[in-house]
């Protein structure tokens, strides 16, 4: 009975210059992935900030139009005055009368965590009243 001849191929020795390449490639891949995640987090934060700012602008515009409607409904009692607007953070409303029959409404607010004061200005001509 003949025994089959089995030959083994000896593994080739890894060159010294190739050792650690997989580890280095893995670290670079993790770095690139982390930078991408950080960019997405920054984008999300910017979206939340812009959405909040847009909501405040829309609310301020609505408040200014409401005040203007009140003044049109009762032009006899138009008085220049400043009031607090509770719907906006640090919100204030200012009604001024720059000329006869003219009304300027300015709504100001300051977003939490910001130093900049934002405003919406509405000008109108209202005739009638006393």
TrEMBL record:
Organism: mine drainage metagenome
Keyword set includes Transmembrane helix: yes
UniProt keywords, alphabetically: Membrane, Transmembrane, Transmembrane helix
The name this protein goes by in its record: Tfp pilus assembly protein PilV
Transmembrane parts of this sequence: 20-43
């Amino acid at each position: 009975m003949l025994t089959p001849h089995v030959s083994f191929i000896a593994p080739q020795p890894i060159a010294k210059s190739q050792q650690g390449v997989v580890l280095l490639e893995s670290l670079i891949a993790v770095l690139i992935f982390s930078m991408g995640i950080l960019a997405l987090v920054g984008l999300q934060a910017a979206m939340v900030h812009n959405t909040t700012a847009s909501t405040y602008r829309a609310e301020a515009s609505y408040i200014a139009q409401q005040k203007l409607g009140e003044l049109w409904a009762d032009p006899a009692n138009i008085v220049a005055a400043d009031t607090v607007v509770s719907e906006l953070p640090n919100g204030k409303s200012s009604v001024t009368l720059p000329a006869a029959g003219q009304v300027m409404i300015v709504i100001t607010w300051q977003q939490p965590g910001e130093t900049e004061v934002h405003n919406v200005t509405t000008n109108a001509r209202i005739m009638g009243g006393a």
